[in-house]
Each structure stands twice: as C-alpha cells, then as structure tokens.
Design goal:
This protein is 47% helix and 16% strand. The protein is of the alpha+beta class. The protein has two domains: 35 residues; 40 residues, no CATH class. The N and C termini lie far apart (83 Å).
C-alpha cells in the first residue's frame, strides 16, 4: 500500500513537470505567456515636474496650468511648483 502511494505521488510530480515543459515550449513558439488568455493593461501615469515621481493621475494632486493639467505626488510639490511658476 505504501509503495502504491509513493508511486501515485511520484506520478503526479512527473506529470506536473511534463506539463510545465510543454507549457514552456508553447510559450516559446507563440511569443506570449502560456496560460494567460486575458489581456494585461497598464495604467497611464504622469510625471511630477518637481520631484520626478510618476503618479497615477486619478490619485494625485492636480493643478491646471494654462491649458494643461499638471499632476503632483503631494501638496508640497504642488506648492513648490506654484512658487517657481509664480
């Protein structure tokens, strides 16, 4: 009985290794990751003109400067920008 359990466990490991090998070959030929059928989308980011940090516009501090909207990582950077521009 013990031998049968060990054989089943070993078979599972070998099957899993074989499947990973096949997945790798498929990934290599197709040029895209195997098993990822959904599209991965990025989030557009804006660069803080004061400190250079990249921020997500929806979660940043914004200021309208002329015709463009400028995004900042914090109110401190926004205030420094105002002092420089003003």
């Amino acid at each position: 009985m013990f031998r049968l359990a060990l054989f089943v466990i070993l078979s599972i490991f070998i099957a899993r290794a074989f499947w990973r090998l096949v997945d790798g070959v498929i990934e290599g030929f197709s040029g895209r990751p195997a098993g990822s059928s959904r599209e991965i989308r990025g989030v557009p980011m804006a660069r803080d003109p004061v400190c250079g940090t990249y921020v997500v516009p929806d979660r940043s501090v914004a200021l309208v400067d002329g015709r463009q909207q400028v995004f900042f990582c914090s109110t401190a950077c926004r205030d420094k920008y105002r002092m420089q521009a003003g």
